[in-house]
Design brief:
alpha/beta; Alpha/beta knot; 19% strand; 10 helices; 270 residues; 2 domains; elongated; four-stranded mixed beta sheet
Length: 270
């Protein structure tokens, strides 16, 4: 048995990685569960170590361990039930991991043709954030940018909700709105702001092949710097007696309307 107590250095590290300052200091992110670890590994993430509870693993989990062992990933067996102490979910799958944090260049995020960029501004809910990452990846978004006031995309709850999308969709984080608008202008990308009440219906808006879309928080909306610089404010029509949609739902509608209008496949950056 490799890990016999909660005082183990790897488990201590996993606990520290729940905090942003340690994720940034160590350049690591905590992953939990068979699906998330498998998705990260398939996307090319480097796994520093994996801890597992042999008694809690499913057949799928054991198959994943075999794959990781063949790839040379360091594996450590924990005493039965020990990993539950460190689990962030109601039902532990008996698998914890520390992986190298994904990092992307400016070119990887913006150097697409066509470029469809999603900007997330002041989102505080990690579930919405993770859902938008996953929706963006599925809906043809080529790069994503997060403002400084937005929840960390490497937050464990974001990682789980994104189902590993952060390891596939290129992103930049901790940018100021003014710097983002200047960057997008320099790339010649028109900016569209999703607004809960004001603006043109997204179904009546003609999105060009290359553009950027800003989604703000449901409570605070989009920052003034984006509203001042945007080409068009767009909204999702509400027919029933509902004041607004949450950010993830509104974002999904607009992302897929823009995708519907697009008749070309995205290409990799040159």
């Amino acid at each position: 048995m490799d890990i016999q107590s909660s005082a183990n250095s790897k488990l201590k590290q996993f606990r520290l990685l729940q905090m942003k300052k340690y994720r940034e200091k160590l350049n690591l992110v905590p992953l939990e569960g068979v699906t998330l670890v498998a998705d990260a590994f398939t996307a090319g993430a480097r796994l520093d170590w994996v801890a597992y509870d042999g008694e809690a693993l499913t057949d799928r989990g054991r198959a994943l361990l075999k794959t990781l062992a063949e790839a040379g990933v360091p594996l450590f067996e924990a005493a039965p039930g020990l990993l539950k102490e460190f689990s962030g979910v109601e039902t532990s799958q008996g698998l914890l991991c520390a992986a190298r944090a994904p990092g992307y260049t400016f070119q990887e995020v913006l150097g697409w043709d066509p470029a469809r960029i999603l900007v997330l501004d002041r989102l505080s809910d990690p579930g919405n954030m993770g859902t938008l990452f996953r929706t963006a990846l599925a809906g043809g978004i080529t790069g994503l940018i997060c403002t400084r006031e937005t929840v960390d995309p490497l937050n464990p709850k974001v990682l789980r909700a994104s189902m590993g999308a952060v390891f596939t969709l290129p992103f930049l984080k901790d940018w100021e709105p003014q710097d983002i608008t200047s960057m997008l202008k320099g790339q010649g990308l028109p900016l569209y702001c999703c607004h809960p009440r004001e603006g043109q219906s997204c179904f009546d808006t003609r999105f060009p092949q290359s553009h950027a879309l800003v989604i703000g928080s449901e409570s605070r909306g989009v920052s003034a710097a984006f509203l001042e610089a945007c080409h068009q404010r767009v909204t999702v029509p509400l027919v029933g007696p509902v004041e607004s949609l949450n950010a993830a739902t509104a974002g999904a509608v607009v992302i897929y309307e823009a995708l519907r209008q697009s008749q070309t496949n995205t290409r990799k950056p040159g």
